[in-house]
Amino acid sequence: xxxxxxxxxxxxxxxxxxxxxxxxxxxxxxxxxxxxxxxxxxxxxxxxxxxxxxxxxxxxxxxxxxxxxxxxxxxxxxxxxxxxxxxxxxxxxxxxxxxxxxxxxxxxxxxxxxxxxxxxxxxxxxxxxxxxxxxxxxxxxxxxxxxxxxxxxxxxxxxxxxxxxxxxxxxxxxxxxxxxxxxxxxxxxxxxxxxxxxxxxxxxxxxxxxxxxxxxxxxxxxxxxxxxxxxxxxxxxxxxxxxxxxxxxxxxxxxxxxxxxxxxxxxxxxxxxxxxxxxxxxxxxxxxxxxxxxxxxxxxxxxxxxxxxxxxxxxxxxxxxxxxxxxxxxxxxxxxxxxxxxxxxxxxxxxxxxxxxxxxxxxxxxxxxxxxxxxxxxxxxxxxxxxxxxxxxxxxxxxxxxxxxxxxxxxxxxxxxxxxxxxxxxxxxxxxxxxxxxxxxxxxxxxxxxxxxxxxxxxxxxxxxxxxxxxxxxxxxxxxxxxxxxxxxxxxxxxxxxxxxxxxxxxxxxxxxxxxxxxxxxxxxxxxxxxxxxxxxxxxxxxxxxxxxxxxxxxxxxxxxxxxxxxxxxxxxxxxxxxxxxxxxxxxx
Length: 589
Fold this sequence. Notes:
The protein has 21 helices and 14 strands. It has about 600 residues and is of the alpha/beta class.
């Protein structure tokens, strides 16, 4: 369809109009002025009868009249040209616009217009389907994704981000991140990272980023911030994309302690309550259960966190040197003491000291430690001066101190001085639901140490890990994962890569609590069945702990109430039967 105007219709009229403005109007001025001059000469000669002029004088008069008329005409033409200049300019612009207007549009072809409209709707439908598919793909990701514009306002987020941040996308759109999360101290790190990414326009990756949610739940995230730019204008920033994943089983207060089992959650809750105090803490548990990590958390969450944290393994130091290590010595106190040396208690002044494996300490040394615990004072080896010390004491042991006291190998008064708060670390076989989280954590750590790609665990390998009794607890699991990562040839770890005899994976452990219900053995269960059983066991334990109240159980598990309700239906669990089963369950243990 052509929309260009035919110039033969409008061109001549425009030219004639310009000719009148430039030539005709000045010519009229000349003729009028000449006529007036000649009329004046005729009237003068006819009516006034002046003396007859000579021919030369008449020629001069006529020349003057013609010259003045021409001058008047030129002056009039200039005036007309100047006055009409804006009008002519407007007319010229109007003509340019008129050239693109169809004076007589052709008749509409109905079939052609319907086909064009149908094509437009088809293209719109395809675009809508592609947009819906892209949205569905984003919502299916395990990572949370939040897009911020260049002003730091939320442009959109996927479903995982809504669930993790406990914020709907509709409520979050066009709001700043600090408006949604708040300026809680735990959130300042993430907000600062987002501001820096917008300012520096560089990709950043951060692990162990704490976050306090609106519900009060605290989590730890692994966050990646990437600038979003135009493809054809790379220097212009469109915004940033925040890609984050919740650290599996980690706590915001103790991110290095991995696990979600109720047994571990009970310990961590007690750590959070005890840490701000100066109470003495005794940590008991088998070797490799993470007693030192708990001691680290107690110090880091205490008011003494900026003061020294001194650790000493009482079982690793010979008896003759342990006293010197604890209390220091003076010059010449014993052979080889060439100078004065402070002890661990003195070095830990105003801080915290960890007496690891205190159950292996000799009775003679226990007496001197009791003095520090009671009065906060000690005497260095070979010295006579009594020194005061302000220190918080945390003790740890893998021995049964009750039995040691009964056998006379550990002082009863020291035991009760240390046993103000007791934290009992559960063995790994008693919290097997934490094994998948721990394995994932150790796989990531192994990949970081080797600067390689993270390996995965096959279903059969995970079955072996879940069925094994783990006498070495978490430390043994960490070593097994590291060895498997080094020796495996493929991208996935197989059972043959694990340093666990296949026949030992099913050996029952009398002290261990059965993990799987309903008669499914760990050896015969597939990966999916095992994980389903683990999930069901966690839900049952949470419902028992909350006396069947689903809202409270959802909080313990870190789930939304709606999600927990669906899982309860899937596993055919009856919460009402668990309301009063917690007491009977404990009594039956």
